[in-house]
Specification:
The chain has 276 residues and is of the alpha/beta class. It contains eleven helices and seven strands. Bound molecules: zinc ion. The site of zinc ion has 5 residues, from strand 2.
Length: 276
């Protein structure tokens, strides 16, 4: 097992790089025509160029360093001393792995949150019903799992509403939290979520189980990084999840022994202030 501090630093850096990468990628779009105009029509075109750059950088700095953010918060964990953890599973429902995870959860009287892709939920309504019956929460992970960065607010809204509608038809009666595919956070996503008053639930612990590593590696990463109030990102969807199922068993056993309880993101968010 690598030292916990090393893993913690690595995780912070990779999360920061992900967010910065998504955001700065967008700077290129207004810059291309402005650079072109400066080159062809003269220096005064560099004034709007500088204004756009400064504006975007300012918004970005405010977004990264303000607790409240410009448009809506991103919830990464909850500030609490209670030993509560929210396990979350993305990209399902994906039988039989979702059901196997549910069985592990039930064995430990644990609940989790499953951020489902609308298209997959449509294919496996019985698995959605099984998640709800077990007492876990369903979340919305977009309809198509397409990247939302290139979408207009209307496109983002359609992805969210269509999935919400299906999950409600399949029995979800609670507020359905959202998690953007690929953690995309550009303006359209937080804007639409703010208008819908929908929480944007991210995570503070990410063991990268989608890489297909062994269960022990996945579980050790989680055990090193969790603290009271953590939100853990795992995947029940996206292919063969045998190792994730085994890792969930290990995580539940180890953390239960340490006195942790496993709750839905909704329960977790009710016990303390959320942190971005
Ligand atoms: Zn996903």
């Amino acid at each position: 097992m690598a030292p916990a501090i090393f893993l913690k630093i690595k995780q912070r850096v990779s999360l920061a790089v992900t967010y910065l990468g998504y955001w700065y990628g967008y700077l290129l779009i207004p810059l291309i025509p402005l650079f072109y105009a400066t080159y062809h029509f003269g220096w005064h075109w560099s004034i709007p160029l500088a204004a756009v750059l400064t504006g975007l950088l300012f918004i970005d700095l405010a977004r990264h360093f303000s607790q409240t953010r410009l448009i809506g918060p991103i919830i990464q964990r909850v500030d609490t001393e209670e030993k509560l953890i929210a396990l979350t599973f993305d990209d399902g429902p994906n039988p039989p792995f979702t059901e196997e995870i549910l069985a592990e959860l039930t064995r430990h009287e644990a609940k989790a949150t499953f951020f489902m892709i609308g298209e997959e939920a449509e294919k496996h309504p019985e698995t959605v019903a099984a998640v709800l019956k077990q007492g876990s929460q369903v979340g919305n992970h977009g309809w198509s799992h397409r990247h939302l960065l290139g979408k207009t607010p209307f496109g983002v809204s359609r992805e969210i509403k269509r999935t919400d509608q299906l999950l409600q038809n399949l029995g979800s009666q609670k507020l359905i939290p959202f998690r953007a595919p690929y953690a995309a956070q550009f303006i359209s996503v937080p804007l639409v979520l703010a208008l819908m008053q929908k929480p944007n639930v991210m995570f503070d612990v990410s063991p990268d189980d989608w890489r297909g590593e062994k269960a022990k590696v996945i579980a050790d990463r989680v055990l090193c990084q969790v603290q009271p109030g953590s939100i853990v990102l795992l995947h029940d969807g996206g292919g063969d999840r045998k190792e994730t199922v085994k890792a969930v068993r290990m995580i539940l056993m180890a953390l239960s022994k340490q006195g942790y309880r496993f709750v839905t993101t909704e329960t977790l968010m009710a016990v303390g202030p959320t942190q971005s």
